[in-house]
Amino acid sequence: MLHFVHDFQFRNALFIGILLLVSTGCVPVQPVVQMSTAVPTPTVTPTPTIAPTPVVNEPVVSVPQPVNPGEQIGISIRVDSVAGVELSYEWSVLEGQGEILAGQGTNAITYEPPVEPGTYGIRVKVTTTNAVIERSTFVTVLSPDIPAPLSMITPSATLTHSVNVNETIQPTVVVTPASLSTFCPDTIARDTISTWDIGATEIDNVQPYLDAFESHRKRGGGFVKGDTIPVGVIITTDFGNGQSEAWEIYPVKPIIHFRSWGLFEVTRSFSAPSEGSCITISPPTDTLTTVPLADEVTICGDAAFAEGLATSDPLFSSPNGYVSGWITSDPATVTLPDGDTRVFEFQYVLIVEDLPFVQVTGVVRHAGKANTGGCWYPSSLSQYIFEDAKQDFCVKKTGGNVAVFYRVSASGFEELGTTATISCP
Predict the structure, then answer these.
(1) How does DSSP assign 338-364, residue by residue?
(2) Are 265 and 252 within 8 A, CB to CB?
(3) CA 131 to chain centre
(4) What's the burial of 328, exposed, middle or buried (CB within 10 Å: 0-12/13-18/19+)?
(5) Which ranges of 135-289 does DSSP label H, i.e. alpha helix?
(6) pLDDT (tens digit, 9 = 90+) per residue, 318-333?
(7) What DSSP string describes 57-100?
(8) What is the C-alpha to C-alpha distance for residues 420 and 425, in angstroms, rounded to an integer?
């Protein structure tokens, strides 16, 4: 019994002691433990890997040009890429410029151009992880009724001057009439044309003379819209669908015609607004003609470029005594003698004033030749430069192409307008 009493007293005393400690705010304190602070290991950000930009080649058209109306054409583009680089393809044509039938989103498409004769553009946009690259090509559709011309450049026609561009012009050169034009291979005597010189007449009177003209055309001489017609030939064409006197704005002399339709003599080279055919005018039989002096003619086509046009980088270099002219071309980069550079992303016409040369680089080639043309003018003919250049520009506009018109000199580049701002006949 005594043991129980002592145990009870001890527990009471312990309980009372705890109550006193709590009531007085005295609580046991935990010892402070010093914590060591660990230094975090720095995170190393890896250097990002930049994907290399692939080499995008020019589109390749699967068939020779010009093509026949209604013909479906394969067009492909090769990209020299590396493993792991993702590519996407987006092909496009302007409204009314044909239709992409198959292959959109891939590197090869099937394209169907319009049935109307003309030149039509196709663009492709190649997108990679770090770049967007655009390329373009063109397809020329031939008229079903006109034989293929002997010389054609797409999209702007090959430009020719008044003598064979492969000949070296001396101060006086005597050549036979047949060598004056390879574009219009047949010849007709001027004496014969003189008997046709009637001028404006009724429509029924024109056809017999056109039939007589065609009887002299044996070896070709057909041309299509956009071809450059050389000086010194007679042509049959319609400048305005027979509904106007549209021929008056072109460098031609009417021989016999009803409104804009009939026979005309070409007095200065120009771009054809519509299809037709041509014959070179020769003097009377067994006579010779003298080519004008070098300072009296324009120099065009291959002869206007230092190494010709069999390159993607043609050099528009002035012959001796020539300082001004104009260039017509597909998209390309143009560099002036002082290094000033302009990238043309669309077709362009460029008037060149008082410069010894202009370097064109990166232009598309077809059939081995750059889609570029140009003419140098002597000072005696310089007043025709703007007129001729604008005429080529208007051919591009009426053909539905997007183009820009520029002038360049020692002062640099000057924009004259675009197909959206310049009015054409």
Answers:
(1) TS-EEEESSEEEEEE-S-SEEEEES--
(2) yes
(3) 22
(4) buried
(5) 190-194, 203-215
(6) 887 788 999 999 999 9
(7) PPPEESS-SSB-TT--EEEE--EE--TT---EEEEEE-TTS-EE
(8) 14
Other Cβ atoms closer than 10 A to 257: 26
CB 410 within 8 A of CB 340: no
Annotate 219-252 with DSSP letters as a single string. Answer: S--EE-TTPEEPSSEEEEEESSTTSS-GGGGSSE
Instruction: Enumerate the domain spans of the chain.
Output: 55-141, 173-291, 298-418
CATH architecture of 55-141: Sandwich (2.60)
CA-to-CA separations, 44 to 39, 40, 41, 49, 50, in angstroms, rounded: 15, 12, 9, 15, 18
3 state SS of 336 = coil
Q: Which residue has the tokens 């397809």?
A: 139
Inter-residue long-range contacts of 66-70, CB under 8 Å, 24+ positions, other chains counted: 66/140, 66/141, 66/142, 66/148, 66/152, 66/154, 66/224, 67/113, 67/139, 67/140, 67/141, 67/142, 68/141, 68/142, 68/144, 69/115, 69/116, 69/117, 69/141, 69/142, 69/143, 69/144, 70/112, 70/115
Q: What is the largest CA-CA distance in the chain?
A: 165
> Both tokens of residue 77?
């583009």
CA distance 323 to 353: 7
Read off the pLDDT of residues 173-200 as tens digits, 9 standing for 90 and up. 333 333 334 678 888 888 788 888 888 8
Q: Is the pLDDT of residue 153 over 50?
A: no
Q: What SS3 state is found at 107?
A: coil
Amino acid at 28: P
Alpha carbon dihedral 196, 201, 207, 212, in 10-degree steps, equals 0
Per-residue burial over 97-107, b = 16 or more CB atoms within 10 Å of its CB, e = otherwise: bbeeeebeeeb
pLDDT of residue 81: 58
The strand pairing partners of 359, in sequence order, are 315, 335
Tokens of 349: 């016409």
Q: Do the strands 369-370 and 365-366 form a parallel or antiparallel pair, or are they unpaired?
A: antiparallel
What tokens were used for 136? 């373009």
Q: What is the pLDDT of residues 260-271, one digit of tens each?
A: 889 999 887 777
Q: Across the chain, what does the average pLDDT equal?
A: 75
Look up residue 93 and give its amino acid: V
